[in-house]
Specification:
Layout: H1 3-18, E1 29-31, H2 34-37, H3 39-51, E2 55-59, E3 68-74, E4 77-83, E5 89-93, E6 107-109, E7 112-114, E8 121-123, E9 128-130, H4 139-142, E10 149-150, E11 152-155, E12 158-161, H5 171-175, H6 178-182, E13 190-200, H7 204-211, H8 217-220, E14 234-238, E15 241-247, E16 268-274, E17 278-282, E18 286-294, E19 301-310, H9 316-349, E20 356-358, H10 363-376, H11 380-393
Antiparallel strand pairs: 1-20, 2-12, 3-4, 3-6, 4-5, 5-10, 7-8, 8-9, 11-12, 13-19, 14-15, 15-16, 16-17, 17-18, 18-19
This protein binds FE2/S2 (inorganic) cluster (FES) and fe (ii) ion (FE2).
Length: 394
């Protein structure tokens, strides 16, 4: 987002503060809980939202230099990102072309990738470089045995990958007006502080919902981020993508400065839900990248939470500060947000929750659920009516 845009947002928040106003959306709505528990719907979402569309799976800063790699996944499909010799980001299916073993784990720097099973080696451009006992195969069998490339697009420090080799990726088309909002954050300057990656007992949508809703903040986070956050949140709608703007008490300090001296981040931070399941947050000191990958059941996902500091080269002092903030954010994400999200998921599965309602202070979440339903042709109101009718008939 450019400076002009940031200043406009800060002014809007200051005006809300002056009037002691809180942003309310236009509507509140009831939704069925099948969206979190129904197996058929879950499989449908994997196909429609994840496997047929490009996914924001990394920052450019995850593979800053030629030879850098990062192994991750999209709904269980293993993806290998590698920066080529000429500086281009490339994506491959992370599977050996001999018998399919995963050839890279984690992240790092490599000259090539050797499969742990029989030692086939692939270059950083994905080409098959060497095969032990090559004479054991006919020459033409080893043709076209390079790693399978995936469509990729990189811009403004973000990497989009399509999980299908013949998929279509167009960066501008994917982000639409949100590109201008995200540009200017200089995501390419991020420096990884730490990564958390583990199975979680939630439907993938809970983690996205929690990232762009501020209604819960003072109640769920009274000892951590709650006291640092004012209730004047702003909700920005970019079609399939959504942003929550959060401010702390420092925003009031802008009043004492001429606009030309307002700091670059204008004392607010953003949390952006990028369809379907990536949440990227950015503030003055720290940024994060979150994905909740659906696993094999509606109530389970693989949760990835990576935190970053700004600036490739940082002093030890800055690194120590970034680590402290990253630890706090992870604690909030797991011990506070994830804890209630799991509770909500388990209560739904136990049949203790006939429906949910999303209010005017949860408008990003409400819009996201309307979009999900639209994309798979689900009628929430009709489902609720049918459920209530069935209940009354019992
Ligand atoms: S499976 Fe990779 S070398 Fe055999
Ligand atoms: Fe939270």
């Amino acid at each position: 987002m450019d400076r002009e845009h940031r200043i406009a947002i800060a002014k809007q928040v200051l005006s809300m503060l002056d009037k002691d106003e809180i942003e309310y959306g236009e509507e509140s709505r009831e939704f069925d809980i099948g969206r979190f528990t129904d197996k058929e719907r879950f499989e449908r979402e994997k196909q429609e939202f994840f496997l047929k569309r490009p996914q924001l799976i990394a920052y450019s800063a995850d593979i800053p230099n030629p030879g850098d790699f990062y192994a991750t996944e999209i709904v269980g499909k293993p993806i290998l990102l590698v920066r080529s010799k000429d500086g281009k980001a490339q994506a491959f299916l992370n599977a050996c072309r001999h018998r399919g073993v995963k050839i890279a784990e984690g992240c790092g720097h490599a000259k090539g990738f050797t499969c742990p099973y029989h030692g086939w080696t692939f270059g950083i451009d994905g080409s098959l470089m060497s095969v032990p006992s090559r004479g054991a195969f006919d020459d033409d069998q080893l043709k076209d045995r390079d790693l399978i490339p995936l469509p990729i697009a990189e811009d403004i420090g973000l990497i989009l990958v399509h999980p299908q080799p013949d998929g279509h990726v167009d960066f501008d088309e994917f982000f639409g007006p949100m590109k201008a909002h995200l540009a200017g954050y200089h995501f390419e300057d991020l420096r990884l502080v730490q990564e958390y990656r583990a199975p979680a007992r939630i439907n993938w949508k809970h983690a996205v919902d929690g990232g762009v809703e501020g209604y819960h903040v003072p109640y769920l986070h009274p000892e951590t981020v709650g006291p640092m956050t004012l209730p004047q949140f702003l909700h920005l709608d970019f079609g399939l993508h959504h942003t929550l703007v959060s401010v702390g008490p420092d925003i009031a300090k802008l009043r004492d400065l001429p606009e030309s001296e307002w700091p670059e981040y204008c004392n607010f931070s953003v949390s952006n839900a990028i369809f379907p399941n990536t949440v990227i947050g950015a503030g003055e000191l720290i940024a994060f990248f979150q994905r909740s990958e659906p696993s094999d059941e509606p109530g389970k996902c693989d949760y990835i939470f990576r935190t970053y500091g700004w600036g490739r080269n940082a002093t030890d002092e800055v690194k120590a500060r970034d680590k402290m903030i990253a630890d706090l954010l992870l604690k909030v994400a797991l011990d506070e947000d994830m804890a209630v999200q799991s509770s909500s998921q388990i209560m739904m599965e136990a049949g203790a929750v006939p429906s949910i309602i999303l209010g005017k202070r949860e408008q990003n979440v409400l819009r996201m659920h309307i979009n999900y339903d639209k994309l798979i042709g689900h009628d929430a109101a009709a489902t609720l009516r049918a459920e209530k009718f069935a209940e009354a008939a019992e």
